[in-house]
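chain below, 502 aa
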Amino acid sequence: MRSTDTLTRDALAVLQPGFHGTAAPDWLLRSVGEGLSSVGLFGRNIASPGQLAALTAQLRAERDDVLVAIDEEGGDVTRLEVRGGSSFPGNLALGAVDDTALTRDVARELGRRLAECGVNLNWAPSADVNSDPGNPVIGVRSFGADPLLVARHTAAYVEGLQAAGVAACTKHFPGHGDTNVDSHHDMPRIDVDLDTLHARELVPFRAAIAAGSKSVMSAHILLPALDPTRPATLSPQILTGLLREELGYQGLIITDGMEMRAISATYGIERGSVLAIAAGADAICVGGGLADEETVLRLRDALVRAVRSGELPEERLADAAARVRALATWTRQARTSGPGAEVQEGTAPGNETDREVGTVAARRALRITRAPGATHVNSAPYVAALTPVANIAVGDETPWGVAADLARLLPGTETGTYDGETGTAASILAAARERRIVVVVRDEHRHPWMAAALDEVLTARPDTVVVEMGVPQSAPRGALHVATHGAARVCGQAAAEAIAGR
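prediction:
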């Protein structure tokens, strides 16, 4: 057995922890010096691009090839622009346009902005096929419900992101689309046969592998057809048998967040981490909820103990650590000599067309349905936002909707937020008075209270405009129905322009 120091460094190398604050705490810098190879960033760590660049420089002063990861999908899931909303539409909008060149351009510009701030690993794209429209956690994060469409856009996204020198992480393997349970809260189960899995879920992952995705993220989901007892993240049959051996994937395998209840409430994060590495994972993502030194030390020590006890083969931990370091080497080379080099040095800010690609994509993604005789809104309206509870991946920090953009176009616009309490429609009608009403919904088909309130408002005021910012599963209705295919800031801007006829 190798020395304790080597074992400890390997155990640290496979962790991707988070932390609190907008500067790296001393314990994190010390851990990087001791062998920690990766750090995960969340919205709480980001105040501005300049601050983020200073933070990543602080980490690289300790270790030049440290992997700095972020969960930046664009669209509804943004960390880079968590307080203002994303400059890029998310996957469903890109799938609705179905122009792979546009998807590649969006991903490349997003990657350029990440690289400019010193981020070199993005936990994106989502390659999940959203085959269950009731899915509470994927939805607009998916390119769509057609496996071939999802596959071509996943590949384009991977290519665009990595052209900017930022490693892609295709998720959530082997597919989180056909579930109505959120793995942040519980263990989803997908009861499909192997033929369905290969014809649907795995198609985008094959495309991502062919496109050279540098990493793949596992899902905390149970697929009895492959492994009746362990979720994908902890399953040798799925991570090693299917992903490595059958699909031939040789890049880095990263777990989804280990503190998500699908793992933490069933196995605990220490045992879960040991089982994940033993199953074939190479990197342990933790830090969305548990973001302190104690968590890092607990996981490090659990891995070392497992090697010493013989539960975790020493070679498996060494192989995992080597794969992490190999990706770190690729990102360093991309930063200093590859396509992302000029971006990283700040000499290629992107031309105007590049910077506006998100706005262009959001406008192209709009689907507008007009009732006969419907007119644009030409005076200050009343905007009623029917607001569901946000899932954990999206979070509730990021603003969304059309009110702010309509107020810029139509000064005097007023707005109210409604969350499903009795009397929603009556409250909206009373607040609107004589103004034109714009009702903004998000996944109307998943929220009966939302549909009922909309029914009442439309009965009383048929000239109401409806904006659907989630999955447009319900039939279009209202004088003007605008489907944005996501709630990114640019989606709201594009919708407001359409409503006001600009």
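Residues 339-348 have pLDDT under 50 and may be disordered. The CA atoms of residues 353 and 402 lie 24 Å apart.
thats it, cya
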